[in-house]
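To close the chapter, one final illustration. This time we ask the reader to focus less on the individual chains and more on the assembly as a whole: which components sit near each other, and how the overall shape emerges from the parts.
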Amino acid sequence: MRLRKFAVSGLFLLFAALGAHAQNKTVAERLGYPADSKLLIVHADDLAVAHSVDTASFDALTRNAVNSASIMVPCAWLTEVAAFAKNHPEADLGLHLTLTSEWKTYRWGPVESKDKVPSLLDSAGYLWPESPTAASHIKPEEAEREIRTQIENAIAVGIHPTHLDSHMGTLFNTPELFAVYAKVAHDYHLPFLAPRLPGELSKLLSLLSDKDVVVDSFIIANPSVPAGEWKDFYVNAVKNLKPGLTEIIVHLGHDDAELQAVTLDHPDYGSAWRQRDYDVAPPGGSATMM
Amino acid sequence: MRLRKFAVSGLFLLFAALGAHAQNKTVAERLGYPADSKLLIVHADDLAVAHSVDTASFDALTRNAVNSASIMVPCAWLTEVAAFAKNHPEADLGLHLTLTSEWKTYRWGPVESKDKVPSLLDSAGYLWPESPTAASHIKPEEAEREIRTQIENAIAVGIHPTHLDSHMGTLFNTPELFAVYAKVAHDYHLPFLAPRLPGELSKLLSLLSDKDVVVDSFIIANPSVPAGEWKDFYVNAVKNLKPGLTEIIVHLGHDDAELQAVTLDHPDYGSAWRQRDYDVAPPGGSATMM
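The assembled structure is written out below.
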């Protein structure tokens, strides 16, 4: 059975359309594995944002150093990712639904007609730079229009999305945005990544059905990890895997002129950060993270 | 007097708002120079299309290897160019009005709301890839909306455009598109580059006023120039300058991973081409083209 969708817990849940199963089985059992299996999804974010990110992510997908990834549809390199998807139909490529444009030198707007989604736009007509700012301005019905258009646009360029998640977690910021996200995901029968909102958990759980599955644990590098201990962070995460379904989210890229310019003045999730993530499973290396 | 706008002839004219002067003076005299002066503008196209193009063009502008350039407003690196413009208020930066998105892997849509300019869009919602296809589909009133929005958007991000021209010459393809272009340029009091359309010259000349100036000659590299004779092409062009106002149009970039990916499968105006243009006046070189 192919794991079409991916992990999460601690902070995150995953709702996945995996067929009707009793909720009292473990996630592993529901996915067709022995009850105490350790299952790992390594997921690369941000495809299409930059050529540097694309080449690093394509390489990792091809070598099975990651086994899932998601795409930013409003970004300029979408057709590069679409060409990869066409040539690699086995690649598990979802959509990193994008309602923010966070870099200084390099920006994008919505895919939908701007006059249909005015609450998504800053004064220059780009998506808001910060996720909380975006969430405070965006009208849920306009978020719905935009994410539906992102899905349709991805399909129009030949991508068959396997799952949905939310760039910078913007769709996790309010119950209203989350509800739109869940509705669209259900409409398209797509698994989707979702957070446990403090105090709002019951609302999220009410969206679960027998077809949805909650993922057990979730791992992502953070600014407290020293650069010199980057690989150890991931190696320890894998060594300490617990039974159940775990997702590791990575941000891959080459620390080159393009990516340094894209991520200007922002070391967190910046160019060197993405090179470190990529270097954990370098080309030609025999050990992947899987 | 500062030459705020640039050249053309042979195939091109330039209409420039330089104040009311008698049309029977030479261009040089009307610009305040002796009648037989040799005046040269070296103009870099395509700023904002890629970081590689931006850094090469910024370097050439800073060193006066070029003295004018124009910006593609719909492209993702616009805010990088806006930051340069803010820090270099002396830079002569116009707008390379953009109605096409010609590369395979890297694309952009309009700045205007898509539902207000549907004739500008291909099936995936990007601008048309080819200039003749674009010109055959685009409704002039929608072209007008888009180019006005590009000008307003440039102003919104802090750019004060000095002139207008047309990416891939799309606005020179039909008299109707040209008329829109001239109207918008006149409305904004901006000099604009324009072609002599075969058989349509009288229509263009009818747009000239005492405030407009026709540029005398126009030079651009073309695919028939061997790579090894690139510098000779420009050196000979400068040696053979004739009295009057000449414009050389260049396309600058670094032949790096980003630009190679942007210009995939398209050597004309491609990554190596732009590196060759850049190398004609390399960093640290004492001889510029001016």
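Chain A touches chain B through 35 residues (CB under 8 Å). Chain A has ten helices and eight strands. With these observations in hand, you are ready for the problems at the end of the chapter.
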